[in-house]
Amino acid sequence: MIYGAMKFSIGGPLKLAFRPWVEGLENIPAHGPAILASNHLSFSDSFFLPAVLDRQVTFIAKSEYFTSPGVKGKLTAAFFKGVGQLPVDRSGARGAGDAAIRAGIQVIESGGLFGIYPEGTRSPDGRLYRGKPGGLARVALATGAPVIPVAMIDTEKIQPPGRLVPKLMRPGIRIGEPLDFSRYHGMDGDRFILRSVTDEVMYEIMKLSGQEYVDIYATAAKRQIAEDAKNKGTERPGA
C-alpha cells in the first residue's frame, strides 16, 4: 500500500521529468523471485530503477535511516519504506555483510525482487569496479534465484557530488538476460566459486554499461583518491 502510493508520487514525476530510456524490460519476470545486480553510479539509482519497473524491487539501506528520532526521522523512515528500502543493522562482527545476505534471502524466499550493487558502493569516477564476492553470490547460491544484470547509464551526471540542483537529462537503464547459477548449488562456502559467480555477473554488467573495468574494489579506489587529494593539498608550492 505504502509502496504503491510512493511509486505513484515519486516514480511518476521522476519519469515525467527525466524520461529515462529502458532496454530489456522483458527480462524482468512478471512473477517469482530474482536478483537484480546493478552497477552503482549515483544515489538516484535506487529510485530510477524501481520507477521503470511494474514490480517492487527491494534494496537494503542502513538501519539508521529508519530509527532516527523526531518528525524528520519518521518522515525519512516512511520515505525509505515507501520506496522499497529494507533496513539492515550494520552492528556485529561482520557488520552489514551477513545482514544483507539474510535480508536478500528473505526477499527471495517471499517471491520478490532483490536489488543489490555488487561493487558495494558508488563508483568514484564513473568506471566499473570489482564486485565484492559476498552478498550477491551467496544469496544467488543459497536461493537458486536467477541473477539479472542491470546497467545504469549517465545517472552520475544528473547530480554529481557538490551539485544541489539535479540536471534534467535522460538517464538510461539496460537490463540483461537472466543468469542461471544452479550448477553451483550447495557450493556457497567455496570462495573460488563465489568469486567466479561475481566476476561473471560483473562481466555482463560491463557489456551492458560500456564502462571501463577496474580490477580493484571501489572502496580502495575512494581511499586512494582521498589520499591523493590530501597529499596534493599538503604539497608546498615550488617543492
Automatic annotation (TrEMBL):
It comes from the Bacteria. Residues 34-155 form the Phospholipid/glycerol acyltransferase domain. Transmembrane segments: none annotated. GO terms for molecular function: acyltransferase activity. The keyword Repeat does not apply. The keyword Metal-binding does not apply. This is Lysophospholipid acyltransferase family protein. It comes from Streptomyces argenteolus. Keywords: Acyltransferase, Transferase. InterPro entries: Plipid/glycerol_acylTrfase.
